[in-house]
Amino acid sequence: MGFGRAVGALPDWFIYGCLGRFIYFVIYRVIGYRIKVVRRNLCRAFPEKSEQERRDIERNFYKHLAELVINIIDMSNISYDDLRDHMRMENIEQHRAETTGRSWVAMMAHFGCWEYFGAYQLYDERAQVVGVYHPLRNAAFDRYFYAIRSRFGLLPMPMKDIARFGIRHRDGYDGRPIVYGMIADQRPPQDDKNQTFDFLGCPTSFFMGSEWIARRLGLPAYFLRVNKVGRAKYSCRWECIYDGQEEIAEGEITRRYVEALDAMIRREPHLYLWSHRRWKHLDIAEDAARAEQNAK
User: Fold this and answer.
1) For the chain, how many structural domains are there in total?
2) Burial 46-83 (b: 16+ CB within 10 A, else e)
3) Which of 71, 174, 205, 248 is most solvent-facing, going by the fewest CB within 10 Å?
4) Does some domain include residue 28?
5) Could you tell me if 228 and 282 lie in one domain?
6) What HEC string does the chain produce?
């Protein structure tokens, strides 16, 4: 946290200009951080694009990733006003009116700077924001992310505990409605509890936890649509994809989320986290088939 505060105290022109370009050069040009994963993902998601178009997305992605590193470091030092400025909620009054007095599920993605979601607690202090996360294997990094996520009142909650927490607090948390913030695009383990959807042209498994919370507790679910409007600045809108009462088939909430996310990524593809092995099962199958073919 001390290092983050020191960096955050530096002027923006330095940390986003000089330091940002240095981080970009190191992770992209020097070490090539997960560059094979990024290129494979882009080829899989955008087979219709030319090699040059995919390389343009690649370069812009690494510039965004460098900025994201700075955003995360700066989270230990950023002020309330600056965080609100970095994460602006366009339709906040309408959304507050729709959710007054009730809990709801926020379905987000690894798009833009998802760590800024803690800013929502600053827009609606009547609610308790719960950030659902996977604990990191590195204990030091896990403590750091817990600290920055809880700075503005967000309650971090390990995913393994969220079902029990939701049932125990179905009437609210200390008398306040709950906002379940869930990064819903993470790659789940292959098991029968997940469902597969067409995502960026690929069969893709999704965690069903967000849908389970919404359906089990009768909560509305909202998709967070994100637009980048400046350096480290985003404009967001909440879009209802389930009202908490509609009779729908199992998997429909997640399908609507996947369609909305797909469209958002295609509009600004460099803002998505391409360094994540989202289609690991397909990669393994392709590698095995290629090895078998080469062995013949």
Assistant:
1) 2
2) beeeeeeebeebbeebbbbbbbbebbbbbbbbbeeeeb
3) 174
4) yes
5) no
6) CHHHHHHHCCCHHHHHHHHHHHHHHHHHHHCCCCHHHHHHHHHHHCCCCCHHHHHHHHHHHHHHHHHHHHHHHHCCCCCHHHHHHHEEECCHHHHHHHHCCCCEEEEECCECCHHHHHHHHHHCCCCEEEEEECCCCCHHHHHHHHHHHHCCCCEEEEHHHHHHHHHHCCCCECCECEEEEEECCCCCCCCCCCEEEEECCEEEEECCHHHHHHHHHCCCEEEEEEEEEECCEEEEEEEEEECCCCCCCCCHHHHHHHHHHHHHHHHCHHHECCCCCCCHHHHHHHHHHHHHHHHC
Identify whether 162 is part of a domain.
yes
Domain match, 103 and 162 both: yes
State the pLDDT at residue 114.
Answer: 93
Range of the domain at 221: 86-271
- At residue 63, does pLDDT exceed 80? yes
Q: How far apart are CA 12 and CA 148, in angstroms?
A: 19
* 164 and 228 share one domain: yes
Q: Is the domain of 90 the same as that of 58?
A: no
Average pLDDT over residues 106-120: 92
Q: Residue 137 domain-assigned? A: yes
- Give domain status of residue 35, yes or no: yes
Per-residue confidence band for 288, with pLDDT thresholds at 50, 70 and 90? confident
Are 147 and 237 contained in the same domain?
A: yes
pLDDT of residue 263: 98
Claim to verify: residue 58 and residue 160 sit in the same structural domain: no
User: pLDDT at position 5, please?
Assistant: 61
Q: Are residue 39 and residue 186 in the same domain, yes or no?
A: no
Q: How confident is the model at residue 198 (pLDDT cuts 50, 70, 90)?
A: very high
Q: How far apart are CA 194 and CA 174, in angstroms?
A: 32
Question: Same domain, yes or no, for 92 and 17?
Answer: no
